[in-house]
Amino acid sequence: MKRFHLHVSVENLDESIRFYSTLFAAQPAVRQSDYAKWMLEDPRMNFAISTRRQPVGVNHLGFQVDSDEELRGMHAQLQAADSQLIQEDEQPCCYARSDKYWVTDPTGIAWETFHTLGSIPVYGEDTAVFNHGASPVPVPNESRSASACCVPAEKTAPKAPRADCCGGPAPSNVDACCI
How far apart are CA 60 and CA 108, in angstroms? Predict the structure, then answer.
C-alpha cells in the first residue's frame, strides 16, 4: 500500500517541529538535529522536514511503498511519466537506506518513489534530482515546454547575452524566459 510522501526544507527545525506537531496532533516518529518525520495514518502520509542545504519550501513529493515488489511494479508507470527516471539502490538518505526511483514533473518538481530497507545513524546524502541531477533547484525541462518560469541558475561559466520575453536583456542568474 502506498503512503504519500512530502519533504519540506525549513529554516528553523525546532519552530517547524512545534508547528507541525500541533497541526498533526502528533510528535515526529523520527527526530534528529537536522530532520524530523511524521508517519501519519489520517491522511496516510510520510511528512518530513529538514534543514539540509536545499532552498526553503517544498523539496520533493513522492510515494513510499511497503515492498520491493511494489516498487519494481511501479517502474513502468514512472518510466512512462518521465523517461529520464533515476534509479537508486540502497541509497542512504534521511536516516534511512532505501531503494528509489526519481522522476521530475513538467514543472521541475521531483517525485521520489521508494521502499525503505532500514534505518541508519546518519542523514546520508541528498540526491540532486531536479533537472535529473544537474541542479539542486527546479529548472524547466526544455524538451517538454518552450515557456517556463524564471529560475536561478548556477553560475558556472559566462553565458552569451540574451533577451528576456519583453525584449530587454535577461538577468544573468536566470536560465528561463520570464512569463
Answer: 10
